């Protein structure tokens, strides 16, 4: 036990002094019953504590009057002393605030009738450099000009250079295990007169088995990243210490705090308490229910006057979503919101690594860490240290909030800082190590339950949405028009995301469903959104009319918008609208003024007022969840796919069409080419026939050659017409017959003429044209042969005319003497001509009428 010798002073025999004599002592003297109830309180004790005798008599000194002493290191010694019978304990203690921090020599000893506590003041202390600065800034009054809350984020809270006085810290080189830094109170764990551990091997101050464990864990690399090894050690003649060792940033750090001798002395949590609490948490069905149970169980376990479940929103503002507190404490923070700057970014980052912080006494004087000269000046990184002193600015915040002892445990959900389990106590509040561990376990159990509850409801909601999306995509793949597929079917985009209005904007075309702003306004919103989107595919806002005043008139129906652009072209937007949720948000203080200006080394201070500050919120809709945005994006991709597919189909068809046209043109050219060649061949055949005719003496044979030549010619004419025609299947009959007649007249020789009257543009199919040409050839050559009154001077009249609906008339009349009766049975010439005519008439389903007018007149009518 580090006993402080009191040179020159002899301890007075308190049992023998009267109360007047006690009052005359410079020493604070307090008489206590075995539970700590105050029986005697002398004047010096009154002066030191600032409390009158009347105010304290009968009350528990450790628990009620000086709760900073309600720790194993003070009250614990008193309790174990009583258990042993006679006791006399001397140690140094720093009283946090009485009203100035005071370093004092303390003696606890048993007397005849009751126990004694004496307090001998050694020195009045400053509050520690950082707090000194804060206090100075407060004293110099606040400056009113606006300050930057961002300054809060720059405080390097992981290297405060000090720890809370409830523990002793040793920092060693992890290679050599030589102590390179210690807290200045490290003498507490050593026998009186021992030198401070700094520069000594760790093994010289801590038991070897513990050193061996540390060595093994260091070697296996299992002491870093927040992992630690915990043991209860007996040091300095048997006092129990709770030791925690961890490695971080090139240091092995050991923290030692006096352990409660008896679990009941400081209401240590038992495993069964924890297990029962976890079971109750697991049974909670809703988030609010789980939060309520967590607050209640953790308060029961830790004894804080108030426990809050504090939840962060996406912007790191927070809200107290559950509170369990002492009914006697009028203040309630339940339902209040706090701005993100109250817990700055570097603190949140640290809390995702190190999971818990406990402050016994906000006003306790931090114990500095000193380093050996050869270890360099690098401050010890206390990120994972349990007894790191918290930011003096935050402690000031706690003071403004009326909080002294406190706790905060990180609630981690899916590896993200979801919130904090916060404990508040109006006075100092010690929580035993086992209890702290239990509170952390319970908080983890709560986090898991949150994860389960959130995941379950999210899963159900997502499943329903995926189903809807699936049906929409099926519609899309079936429909030609994606807009109607998404807005007009049995399922529409309005069935997604709890939106009350939705729409599709494609270029200048707007299709709306549900309750949405009018088309013109939506076009304006779409233009603004395209701008906002830039190269992004999605834009989601729960309060877009704040940035787009033009849309403000519609905020009742559309305060929130989710917009997704479709495809590369970004021409199409899918839109969802959500209505305004009229709401008030109650902040714990004005969130626009989170900081006050400090001065000197302290530039910012936390606000002092936590008065309810009600913000009327207009223009806010329920926020869009990230999964909803990504689901909307996947729908847009599906739309893009379908639109693309349609475009591809059209492209394909256009390609095919072009190909066909090309083929058609080629075929046309080919056919014409063939017709041309056929015509040429026929002309050659015809010429041969003419040539042979000339070499034949027999008149009939000559005539036969001549007739055949004419027939071949007529077919050649048709092919010539075909070759020249615009359309390949049809020929201009008038033109064909005209050329034919000229040929025939030419073949027949001088004196033969044809008077032709032909309707122009009378298009007939090729087959019909061939047949009619052959018929015309027969009739005209016959007329030349037999119909002339003066042989060799016949005139023939040919008429080609249409008679509607495809009917064609061909008339061939001569100016001869007419046909004799019964001419059909006594054919002129060989009769071959007439046979050919009949065959042709049959082929094209035509009729032949014959009359003498007085010359022979033949009329062919096709149907
Ligand atoms: C830390 N601020 C914190 C912490 C809480 C709050 C819970 C964590 C403390 C811990 O882990 O023990 C704030 N406390 C709250 C809130 C409630 C509460 C919102 O009980 C409501 C129920 N704080 C300020 C300003 C600054 C600031 C203006 O308000 C800076 C200028 C700083 N807060 C600040 C810092 C920390 C902090 C630096 C980190 C403390 C530390 O871990 O060292």
UniProtKB/TrEMBL annotation:
Residues covered by the PAS domain: 22-65
Stretches assigned to the Phytochrome chromophore attachment site domain? 286-445
Query: What are the recorded GO MF terms, alphabetically?
Result: ATP binding; photoreceptor activity; protein histidine kinase activity
Q: What class of enzyme is it?
A: transferase
Q: Which residues form the Histidine kinase domain?
A: 673-863
Q: Can the keyword Kinase be found in this entry's annotation? A: yes
Tell me which PROSITE patterns the record gives: HIS_KIN, PAS, PHYTOCHROME_2
Q: Which InterPro entries match?
A: GAF (IPR003018), GAF-like_dom_sf (IPR029016), HATPase_C_sf (IPR036890), HATPase_dom (IPR003594), His_kinase_dom (IPR005467), PAS (IPR000014), PAS-like_dom_sf (IPR035965), PAS_2 (IPR013654)
Q: Its Gene Ontology biological processes? A: detection of visible light; phosphorelay signal transduction system; regulation of DNA-templated transcription
Q: Which Pfam families match?
A: GAF, HATPase_c, HisKA_2, PAS, PAS_2, PHY
* SMART domains linked: GAF (SM00065), HATPase_c (SM00387)
Known EC number: 2.7.13.3
Q: Which SUPFAM superfamilies match?
A: ATPase domain of HSP90 chaperone/DNA topoisomerase II/histidine kinase, GAF domain-like, PYP-like sensor domain (PAS domain)
Keyword Protein transport appears in the UniProt entry: no
Task: Keywords in alphabetical order, please.
Answer: ATP-binding, Chromophore, Kinase, Nucleotide-binding, Phosphoprotein, Photoreceptor protein, Receptor, Sensory transduction, Transferase, Two-component regulatory system
UniProt lists the family membership as follows: In the N-terminal section; belongs to the phytochrome family.
Q: What is this protein called?
A: Phytochrome-like protein cph1
Origin species, per record, is Methylobacterium symbioticum
Report the gene name: cph1_2
């Amino acid at each position: 036990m580090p006993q402080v010798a009191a040179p020159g002073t002899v301890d007075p025999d308190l049992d023998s002094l009267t109360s007047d004599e006690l009052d005359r002592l410079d020493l604070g003297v307090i008489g206590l019953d075995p539970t700590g109830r105050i029986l005697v309180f002398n004047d010096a004790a009154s002066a030191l504590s600032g409390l009158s005798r009347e105010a304290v008599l009968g009350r528990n000194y450790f628990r009620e009057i000086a709760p900073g002493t309600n720790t194993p290191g003070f009250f614990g010694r008193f309790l174990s002393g009583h258990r042993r019978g006679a006791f006399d304990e001397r140690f140094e203690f720093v009283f946090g605030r009485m009203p100035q921090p005071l370093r004092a020599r303390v003696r606890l000893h048993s007397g005849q009738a009751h126990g004694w506590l004496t307090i001998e003041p050694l020195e009045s202390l400053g509050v520690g450099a950082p707090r000194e600065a804060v206090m100075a800034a407060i004293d110099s009054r606040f400056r009113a000009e606006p300050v930057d809350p961002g300054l809060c984020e720059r405080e390097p809270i992981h290297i405060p250079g000090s720890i809370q006085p409830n523990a002793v810290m040793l920092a060693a080189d992890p290679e050599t295990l030589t102590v390179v830094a210690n807290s200045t109170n490290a003498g507490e764990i050593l026998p009186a007169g021992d030198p401070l551990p700094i520069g000594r091997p760790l093994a010289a101050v801590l038991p070897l088995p513990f050193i061996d464990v540390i060595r093994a864990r260091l070697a296996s690399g299992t002491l870093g990243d927040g992992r630690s090894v915990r043991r209860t050690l007996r040091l300095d003649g048997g006092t129990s210490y709770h030791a925690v060792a961890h490695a971080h940033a090139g240091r092995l750090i050991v923290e030692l705090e006096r352990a409660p001798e008896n679990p009941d002395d400081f209401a240590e949590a038992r495993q069964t308490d924890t297990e029962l609490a976890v079971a109750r948490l697991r049974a909670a069905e809703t988030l609010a229910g789980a939060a309520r149970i967590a607050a209640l169980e953790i308060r029961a376990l830790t004894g804080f006057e108030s426990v809050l479940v504090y939840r962060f929103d996406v912007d790191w503002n927070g809200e107290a979503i559950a509170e369990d507190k002492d009914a006697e404490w009028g203040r309630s923070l339940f339902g209040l919101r706090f701005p993100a700057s109250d817990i700055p970014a570097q603190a949140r980052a640290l809390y995702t690594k190190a999971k818990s912080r406990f402050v016994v006494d906000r006003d306790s004087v931090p114990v500095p860490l000193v380093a050996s000269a050869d270890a360099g000046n690098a401050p010890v990184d206390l990120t994972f240290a349990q007894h790191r002193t918290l930011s003096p600015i935050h402690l000031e915040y706690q003071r403004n909030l009326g909080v002294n002892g406190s706790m905060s445990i990180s609630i981690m959900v899916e590896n993200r800082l979801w919130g904090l389990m916060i404990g508040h106590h109006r006075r100092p509040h010690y929580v035993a190590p086992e209890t702290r561990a239990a509170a952390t376990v319970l908080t983890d159990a709560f986090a898991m339950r949150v994860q389960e509850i959130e995941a379950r409801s999210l899963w159900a909601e997502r499943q329903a949405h995926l189903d809807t999306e699936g049906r929409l995509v099926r519609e899309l793949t079936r429909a030609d028009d994606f807009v109607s597929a998404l807005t007009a079917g049995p399922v529409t985009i309005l069935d997604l995301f709890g939106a009350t209005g939705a729409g599709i904007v494609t270029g200048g075309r707007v299709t709306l469903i549900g309750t949405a702003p009018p088309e013109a306004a939506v076009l304006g919103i779409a233009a603004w959104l395209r701008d906002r989107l830039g190269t992004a595919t999605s834009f989601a806002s729960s309060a877009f009319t704040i940035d787009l005043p033009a849309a403000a008139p519609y905020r009742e129906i559309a305060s929130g918008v989710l917009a997704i652009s479709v495809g590369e072209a970004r021409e199409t937007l899918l839109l969802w609208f959500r209505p305004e949720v009229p709401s008030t948000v109650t902040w714990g203080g004005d969130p626009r003024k989170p900081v006050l200006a400090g001065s000197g080394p302290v530039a910012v201070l936390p606000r002092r007022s936590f008065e309810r500050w009600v913000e009327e919120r207009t223009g806010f809709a329920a926020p869009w969840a990230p999964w909803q945005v990504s689901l909307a994006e996947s729908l847009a991709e599906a739309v893009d796919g379908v639109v693309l597919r349609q475009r591809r189909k059209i492209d394909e068809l256009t390609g095919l069409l072009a190909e066909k046209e090309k083929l058609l043109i080629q075929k046309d050219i080919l056919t014409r080419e063939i017709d041309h060649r056929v015509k040429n061949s026929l002309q050659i055949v015809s010429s041969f026939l003419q040539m042979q005719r000339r070499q034949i003496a027999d008149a009939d044979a000559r005539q036969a050659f001549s007739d055949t030549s004419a027939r071949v010619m007529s077919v050649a004419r048709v092919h010539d017409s075909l070759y020249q025609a615009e359309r390949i299947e049809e020929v201009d009959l008038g033109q064909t017959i005209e050329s034919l007649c000229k040929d025939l007249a030419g073949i027949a020789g001088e004196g033969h003429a044809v008077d032709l009257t032909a309707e122009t543009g009378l298009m007939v199919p090729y087959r019909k044209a061939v047949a009619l040409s052959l018929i015309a050839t027969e009739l005209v050559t016959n007329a030349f042969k037999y119909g002339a009154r003066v042989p060799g001077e016949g005139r023939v009249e040919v008429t080609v005319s249409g008679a509607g609906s495809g009917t064609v008339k061909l008339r061939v009349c001569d100016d001869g003497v007419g046909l004799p009766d019964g001419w059909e049975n006594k054919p002129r010439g060989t009769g071959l001509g007439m046979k050919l005519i009949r065959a042709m008439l049959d082929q094209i389903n035509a009729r032949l009428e014959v009359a003498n007018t007085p010359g022979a007149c033949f009329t062919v009518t096709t149907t």
